[in-house]
Design brief:
Four copies of one chain form a homotetramer. By secondary structure, chain A is mostly helical. Chain A is 72% helix and 0% strand. Chain A contains nine helices and no strands. Chains in contact: A-B, C-D. Chains A and B meet through helix 6, helix 7, helix 8 and helix 9 of A and helix 6, helix 7, helix 8 and helix 9 of B. The structure holds a DNA duplex.
Chain lengths: 190, 190, 190, 190
DNA sequence: GATGAATGAGGTTTCATTCAT
DNA sequence: CATGAATGAAACCTCATTCAT
């Protein structure tokens, strides 16, 4: 059997191991051997599930992004106020960013060599942008947001809220502050 | 003559070459040989200016961050309204982010191996955070901002405005939108 | 049941698969997995019939050589003129060479690592040489060949007629030409 | 400097080392590290002269074949009788074959993966065939050979005189025998 | 100072072989 | 008997670093 779907369980275990090693060793410190050890399998086994290192990273990016977007969509779909959902979205976003330790951009760039790969990466970003744009449009429709907003632009601005604070400020207070600013910034007049 | 004080001109040329190669090849694709070629010097010459690759990257991070912070401070010091300066700050920030193509985090992490280096990196972040916190405090003092803000927190929020929009939205409109939101979000009542 | 005496049918199928893969992929491209796939069996099964890859190759060399020598002996034993039989011998030889695509020497060398193996390989060559020397001696006895020949030497010369023409000359014409030269070269005066 | 012509001296030394290792270890036993050790250089240095193992082998085949063909052409050009030159040609051929220890075919096949490479290999064979065909045509013109020969076919037959005797017969006697057979076989009537 | 040929540690990848099912 | 997932030794190749010129 060539690659693909032996056991998805092991495939996922390798991906989990990969991000763990990535967090600990950084991108240049990421060695297949360490991934294998972290997943408690043999080095060669990794290659039964992923053609090469590049594919492994690509799968990782895809896997975590997909998971993140699914969570974001689930939050957006909830029947709660715009700003309650915004808070959760931002919280989830921070978790995503923490998980990658600032490596997201580099790993994505690493993986996106070649035209096809670049398109694939853009596709991921578009999906996230769409989720947020739709979220804004939804908020406007429900009358929770000002009516003079451009959903695409505001979506972009939301997606740019991307860096976790590099310094250890209190996360709760930080989020509260952020949401309050945005409430005043984009909320409808009472 | 000490390693660090040779011809600063060539030193800088190497740093410029480094970030160019970084932009084109990514972090893992960054090879000293390519840097040398881009700087139009011999491979060995790089080592006359930097102890090793790690030092080169560290110097690069330091160099560009310092430059960026200096620009930010200059903008903050200008005698213009808070939101005019905010717009310039954000514009400068986007330029910084573009320059690094998402690699800032990874390169910084790469460089910050070891306790001493970690402290050094934190120092950089603190400096940026301080600039922004002071900026917010200044805005409050001048009565341009609401008085109930926590400068440290808002400074953190500003520093997190860190990801350039991944998609090609119009930069001017994007900045306008962002500033307007913040104006409503943190500006003093008229 | 001993390793060597399992189903000879499957054993032979593996050998056939091996030479097929060898023809397509070359010596360095020969992988047990491909052999197994070509034989439509599992990879592990190959090891039920052959101790290891080396043994498999050795068996292959032995199998095809034995077959070839048997055919050669059969041709020699026929009750036809020397040169009619020579033509058939050469034709069979060309088929043998084609089958190996120039890899015979390399595979044999591969297999013949170690003193015992070397002796075994020399044994094969000696057998072929003997067949041809005897053939020449027979031709001399029957008066079809010149009486001043050294059967051992001429046998060696015949065995050296070993490379198929690398270029696609007409096989029939080629053989005719060769036999005619030899007829004039070693045939008895009429 | 990228590959190609640093010092041709070292390049040649690597090729010499390669064929030595090939003779001793066989095709599958050929390791770049051994080649490097045999050439008394570092492993990485080999890669400064040859992109990869495949290129090294290709260069080796080309180098030795070119050398061999040049020698063959020099022999053919000499102002001596056809059969004197034939003997030298055969002797040189035996040396060539001995040098490769039966690996020529396999190495050539190894190298000739891909259409372009196949054409390149055919080109080599054609060159040899041409040398021999011309040699025969020359012999006919000079009246040393029968006039009813087909130079192309006889050239093919000569090029097929390719396997050194596998058994240690006396080389001199062997060559004498062979030349005598060919003299009777293709020589003009006295 | 400047250079780039040389090096070899170290990472990636392959594949013969094993063994639990 | 048959299988193929798993393994890790071993081979390939890269590239940071050195050093003789």
């Amino acid at each position: 059997m060539a690659l693909a779907t032996r056991s998805n369980e092991k495939r996922r275990a390798i991906l989990e191991a990969t991000i763990r090693v990535l967090q600990e060793q950084g991108l240049r410190g990421l060695k297949i051997e360490d991934v294998a050890r972290a997943a408690e399998i043999g080095k060669g086994t990794v290659y039964l599930y992923f053609r090469d290192k590049q594919e492994l990273l690509k799968a990782l990016v895809e896997h975590r992004a997909t998971e993140f977007y699914a969570d974001a969509e689930a939050i957006v779909r909830q029947d709660r106020s715009f700003f309650e959902r915004l808070r959760d979205l931002l919280e989830r976003r921070l978790a995503f960013i923490d998980e990658w330790r600032g490596l997201w951009g580099a790993v994505a760039a690493e993986v996106a060599q070649g035209e096809a790969k670049k398109a694939w990466l853009t596709g991921l970003h578009e999906r996230y942008h769409r989720i947020l744009s739709d979220f804004v449009a939804d908020g406007m429709e429900r009358g929770e947001l000002r009516q003079d907003l451009e959903p695409e632009l505001v979506g972009a601005a939301l997606s740019a809220l991307g860096c976790a604070p590099q310094l250890p400020v209190d996360r709760g207070a930080y989020l509260d502050q952020l949401v309050e600013i945005w409430k005043k910034g984009v909320g409808a007049k009472p």
